[in-house]
Amino acid sequence: MNSTVIARFSAILGVTTSRTTCARLTLARFYAAKKGRKSKSSSSSVSIDHDLAEGLVDLEKLQSAMESAVGKLQLDFRDKISTKILPNALDKIKVESQNGKDKFILSQVAQIKLNNGMFVVDMNGSPELVSQAAKAIKSWSLNFEPTMDGHVISVPIPRVTQEYRENLTKIAKAACEQSKQSIRKVRQKGMSDVRKNKKGRSDDDVKTVEKMIQQLTDQFCEDTEVLLEEKTKELLRK
């Protein structure tokens, strides 16, 4: 995709990570439409009218929540579900204390090194968090199998085989579905707000706002499918 076009859209939308993501996906929808793939929301679309929705539902908040779900999926695809493991991949993993009251960033409580295809996580500075850190690493990526030896955690990087790639595509598909579920929960909350606040509003207004919510839901769910399609091609080298 032309980087100049993406940069132009990003400038228009405000140059934040989430907005840039939204611009890229909007362009992807456009090119998909040119190839003949129909959008679920394109047949009888309505304009997103925040003024009309005011008093029925906070449409901006709803849209932002859906956008965040897509952004999280994109980050997961980049950082977690990939054949390319970066040296700082474990740095931002959150480690919960045993009593569950405190959370720590792994790089702040451990020394992390990547040597010969293995992460070595030295927890000598925070020995009480060793088991919790190992659990956090395992939860962060199902492909990692951390082992503990005293205050040191070893995390071998899996060898990239075709089977490994196919397994990653299954994990990517599950992550995509989870993202869609998050989007649908936002939709459900939005529809509930409309029903609670519809007193005094015309049926046409209510139906139009409900249609806006459904349209946003369809669009953002389609965005997750675009991301999944691109990620699958990357993982399987198609």
From TrEMBL:
SUPFAM superfamilies: Ribosome recycling factor, RRF (SSF55194). Signal peptide: none annotated. Residues 190-206 have a biased composition (Basic and acidic residues). Keywords: Protein biosynthesis. The keyword Protein biosynthesis applies. Residues 83-236 form the Ribosome recycling factor domain. Residues 185-206 are annotated as: Disordered. It comes from the Eukaryota. Belongs to the RRF family. This is Ribosome-recycling factor, mitochondrial.
